[in-house]
Amino acid sequence: MATSTPSTGDNKRTMPATSNLRHSQSARPSSPHTPQQQPRSGNASFASSTSPGSSFRNEDDAIIFEIGTRWIRAGFEGNGSPACTVGFGPEEMRRVGDYRGWIQGASGVGPLPRPVNAEDWVRDYELWRHDLRDLDLGLVEDKIERALRETYNQHLLTDAGTSRLVLALPSLMPHPLLSSLLSALFSRWRFPSVTLLSSATMSATAAGLRSALVVDIGWAETTTTAIYEYREVTTKRSTRATKLLMQEMGRILTVLGSDKAPEEAVKDEISVGFTYCEEVTTRFAWCNPQVEAGGAVSGPDRTISIPSPNNPDKDFCDIPFAQLSEPVEKVMFAPGVTECEMDDEEKSIPVLVYNTLLTLPPDARGTCMSRIVFVGGGSRIPGLRQRILNEVSLLIDQHGWSPIRGKVLERQRERLERMKISSQTNEEAQPTNKSSAPSHDEGEKPDPSREEPEIDFVEQKLRRQNKDTSVLVQGVLREVESLGAWAGASLVTSLKIRGMVEIEREKFLQHGLAGATRESEPPVPDRRSGLRAGDRSSWTLAGWA
Amino acid sequence: MSRPFPYTYISCPCADTPVPDPARKRRSRGTPQKSPNPEQPNVDNEDKKPQEEENEDEEEEEQTFDPRSPRSNFSLYPPEQLLYCEDCHQIKCPRCITEEIVSWYCPNCLFETPSSMVRSDGNRCGRNCFNCPTCTAPLAVSTIENVTGNGSQQGPWVLSCGYCMWTTLDIGIKFDKPTNIRTQLQKMTDATATPSYDRSRQASRTFGDLKSPLSSYASIDEQSASREGSGEQSATNEDTIPTPDLGTDARFAALKSFYRTQISETSTSPGDPLGSDLGFSSPGALNRLMSLYASSSRLSGLYGGNKKQKSKPPVMREALTSSEGLRIAPDNGDADVIERLGSQECGWDGVASIEQRQDQSPDVRFADDLIPLPCLLRTKRAKRCKSCKHILVKPETKPQSTRFRIRLIALSYIPLPTLRPLALPSSSSMMSAPIPDLNSLPPLRPVHVLLTLKNHMFDPVRITLATPSVTPGRVASKVTVLSPQFDIGANSDVWDEALQNASAPVTGDPKLATLRGVPEAGKVWDKGRNWTTVVLEVVPGTLPGSEAEGGNEVTAKDGTLATQQDEDVLEIPVFVHMEWDAEAQLEQQNVGKASKPDDLVARELAYWMVLGVGRIQASL
Fold first, then answer.
1. Distance of residue B266 Cα from the nearest chain A Cα, in angstroms
2. Mean pLDDT, 10 residues at a time, over chain A (545 residues)?
3. Up-side HSE of residue B78: CA atoms within 13 Å toward CB?
4. Does A143 touch chain B (CB under 8 A)?
5. Which residue does chain A place closest to B313, by CA atoms?
6. Residues A204, A214 within the same domain
7. Where is this chain compositionally biased, Polar residues type (chain B) (predicted)?
8. How far apart are alpha carbons A250 and A260 in whole angstroms?
9. Measured between alpha carbons, how far is B314 from B311 in angstroms, rounded to an integer?
10. Distance CA B361, CA A487 (A)
11. Does residue A409 belong to the interface with chain B, where contact is any CB pair within 8 Å?
């Protein structure tokens, strides 16, 4: 075999491309997987993409699901926005034939009969939570099954299970959850394969970026994921996210609705409907983009009228507009709480962003900090993104990029400076600095005119090699808007890029998640095999392992 | 629950066979399995708990079905919604069937959409059917003159909602023709989305539309050529150009064409001698989008080994201009949004609600941004058994027709359960006994309910009912089936009964049934041609926290005092086991040695049923 491979290589140089493609394709099943084989297996996939068979295959578009704690987004590959967004709530958990939601009005609008604990208040509206201790995985499977079935029947209007399924999932998923999700999908429908795509990377792709810092202000947690050249470099997370925001807003509205003084209602109990509170939050929660309170945005005396918490269907009540920004500030930025008092999992979001950038190597940091992408439900709150960026830039001004800080350090620095001042004379130090700096400037100023051809040469070469490096924005804080993880997954799938993690039905049903190879990087030929899924001997969970 | 009392639900047996997960076995062995209902951790009395734990290791069927468990909501169905597979001899619920779409149609105009058009129409009606973006009522096409009271049929046309009086004039849209509204609207919304960016929009449109690889080649070249010219200078002074506000779809198309161009450029690299002949959509080249690896250096080593190693293959770059889909957040941020939110004229109704936004473009925030959406199509679906692919339901294709070619509903095979309260004749007056009010059952006072099972099969059925003596959950009601084993007659000709009854005294009259006296244990209450009625004696339990509670230890726990929603509903799980001798099917007859035609096969079916009796009063 080894002797025959160079000869086909020679043929390739002389023969027209199409014929040797066919040749290599026919030769490939019998030949072993030697390293020389790799280019040819790539060729085989090239050929298959232009053959009529592949165009037939292209017709059944993959279906993309982005499954989050609160919502499922679903649609076809190549579309810019999902065909539908389906939520989870008590109405979705009712029995078939139980039409109470229609008879009495959906639950969660009116005030609750009695105050409930803030955690119980949100529990019914979540598909899952990452704390698996009190999570019934069977119930999660039931919910997913029903949600997907109804999505297919009502929105996608296509037969479930015939086409490929692509899931955009956060890259940190508890394995039991992932396992029940996949087994629910595979055992209920006949999906040939399920591809997993990391939602953070997809968000970066949907912003047109290769490297980014994706800040996902989600339901249960805010994650900041640094992505460098499409790879997740580091991830940090904080519990300051929409769930806390909703609970805080619920408390405010509870106080607003109750006649009691706020002091009496400080118990961690909420008595307003969840749907009502969510409506208020999505409509009117806002955040002052300036760090200082009382910025230029709106007068503090403005009031708006929102439906009354006690009787949302009929009455309205006035609330100061500024008060609607309080929960956002309190939850996301934790004003008045020093950083050392917060646990690792409840850092405020600017600190979270700053810390994530700090852990990156300087190159990656420079690239990522000018590509900050906000996704998730919380990023819709007006002003929040700007505020986060403002606070991050304040942090950078304050600390620079040094992780070392503290009172002792400052004292030490002061002492050193005092020593420096006392030992050295100011007259000596300053003139030398001043003289050296201008001399550099003067020395360089004539240079550009002289070195113009040289710079041009370098730039030309750079441009020939990789065109983008010369114009890369770097080192400044900048926000880039993304279309979201769903759109990214749709984009990537429609470009016929295969994900690293493609789980095939038979293999999963045999071994479950345990069948995945432990290597995070699968062997290269598997990924080059393109549309031919059959020759994958092993599969991996890559980032999900 | 929402159904008026009394009601019956049937649990599909598929809930008892959990999803086979190869990994689960190991997992559950490693960590102790959670109790299935976390909401009621202290359901059982102390002496029951060890037994419960033992049961957990055994088969799940051994456990009593708990209608209050959150999972049971997903397996309980009204009896009329269930199907029956004749091959598997099993009840089939929507979870254990597969569905195939027979036809697509618009629920508004009842026109069938051909399958080739469904996807291109975005699963929505391609005619003039639109839903109101604010209240979802169907919109009507009318002239502006009609709206103002003039009767002429000419002039600009608008879509107007008859329910909430919304018209497209509110968002400044008028139509020239009363037909083909959808294409007109599409043109207008696209134009508003891309006010100044016709060129890039045009280019992206062509990319999206072209399917053939050859034609997209040509346009790719054009695109890259034009980008070479315009891209660089626009890239350099990118900061000065205000980013045009591309709509979501336009941005997506721009990004897509950008990635396509990048992929084609990077795959036709000089280092890759074969790359120039190959399509940009080849997956091997596309892999480089996600990561770079050393394949091309290997290629050059193979094919140009003696030559000097070529430079690195061109790397895909990121999007740099807004025509490539990049969008930098504006400098002033959301200041104007906040300003508008806080302004007086916006108000609560000026902001779109979650429900209104759900189907709209994700950028929509204010009610003015909502555009009418065409009606979502609906489907007629054939249903097959998931395990044997036997077809269970096949509707007629025509949208107007409500007939079915095949429909195997479960009620033709399993007895229909109906429940009604029994008004016990008191000793004093024979006829006027008060029927207990099912919406407020007094606790600790026995109630008799009549459970009638009506057989629709042509074979007599033997039924065995089983029920836990105490209902699961915190509200422990005592239940006794007075005659758990009985027969139901075959669904024979109606005239048989009439003829029989002509001679025999009428037994099926419900009024006379009250004269029957007191219910006795082991005795069927009433029986007809194909139905049998038995009596259930129910003693409703007391609600936790009510004063009727006699020192139960549940109150001791703090927090459990509050009743969960619907905890006061008295639901009785009943296990139904039915046996009958069915006629053997044809193939079975042929397989067996030439047997008699009236060969009978014993069949059995077992399932859980939930009887909703009523709501228990909070206090005595």
1. 10
2. 38 36 38 39 36 43 90 89 87 82 72 80 87 87 90 88 87 87 88 89 90 92 91 90 91 80 63 88 86 55 82 82 87 84 88 92 89 91 90 89 82 86 60 44 42 57 58 81 91 84 85 70 42 52 72
3. 13
4. yes
5. A465
6. no
7. 30-43, 213-240
8. 16
9. 9
10. 12
11. no
Contact B22 A511 (CB under 8 A): yes
Q: In A, residues 318-337, which contact B (CB 8 Å cutoff)? A: 321
The nearest CA of chain B is from the CA of A194 a distance in Å of 16
d(CA B252, CA A492): 11
In a domain, A434, yes or no: no
**Amino acid found at B408:** L
* B596 plus B479 within the same structural domain: yes
DSSP symbol at B47: G
Query: In this complex, do A9 and B303 lie within 8 Å of one another by their Cβ atoms?
Result: yes
Statement to judge: residues B202 and B189 lie in one domain? no
Beta-bridge mates of residue B535: B450
- Say whether both B160 and B286 belong to one domain: no
Q: Are A197 and A503 in contact (CB under 8 A)?
A: no
Looking at the fold, whether B217 and B299 belong to one and the same domain comes out as yes
> Is residue B563 domain-resident?
yes
Domain span at residue B257 reads: 198-237+244-324
What is the number of domains present in chain B?
A: 3
> Quick one: DSSP state of residue A79?
-
Which pTM value belongs to this model? 0.76
Tell me: ipTM over 0.90. no
**Coil, strand or helix at B403:** coil
C-alpha separations of B244 from B197, B207, B238, B240, B364 in Å:
7, 20, 11, 12, 17
Residue B279 has pLDDT above 80, yes or no: no
Query: Which burial class, exposed, middle or buried, applies to B119 when counting CB atoms under 10 A from its CB (0-12, 13-18, 19+)?
Result: middle
- Report the distance separating Cα B417 and Cα B410, nearest Å: 12
Interface contact A278, partner B, CB < 8 A: yes
Q: Which three-class secondary structure state does DSSP give residue B470?
A: strand
Residue A218 CB coordination number (10 Å): 22
Pairing of strands B378-385, A71-76: unpaired
8 A C-beta contact, residue A522 and residue A503: no
As a whole number of angstroms, the distance between CA A208 and CA A488 comes to 9
Nearest to A384 by CA among B354, B340, B329: B329
Q: Containing domain of residue A22, as a range?
A: 4-26+36-59
Within-domain flag for A363: yes
Whole-number pLDDT of residue B21: 55
Residue B603 lies in a domain: yes
With beta carbons less than 8 A apart as the criterion, state whether B271 and B310 touch.
Answer: yes
Residues 477-506 of A with CB under 8 A from B: 478-481, 483-484, 487, 490-492, 494-498, 500
Q: What is the DSSP letter of B82?
A: -
CA-based nearest residue to A376, from A220, A174, A172: A220
**Are B420 and B517 in a shared domain?**
yes
pLDDT in tens, A61-96: 889 999 988 999 999 988 888 888 888 888 888 888
Residue B146 sits at the vertex; the CA angle it makes with B145 and B152, to the nearest 5 degrees, is 65
Give B207's contacts in chain A (Cβ within 8 Å): none
Calpha distance A101→B135 (Å, rounded):
17
Q: What is the pLDDT of residue B55?
A: 42
Best mutation target among A20, A119, A304, A391 (most B Cβ atoms within 10 Å) is A304
- Specify whether A216 is located in the same domain as A201: no
Is B70 in Cβ contact with A527 (below 8 Å)? no
Supply angle C-alpha A94, A172, A198, rounded to 5. Answer: 95
Contacts with B558 from chain A: Cβ below 8 Å: none
- pLDDT of A14 reads 34
Q: Kindly determine whether residue A497 and residue B283, on different chains, have CB atoms separated by under 8 Å.
A: yes
Distance CA B48, CA A470 (A): 74
Tell whether B355 and B420 lie within a shared domain.
no
Which tokens sit at B102?
A: 């027979």
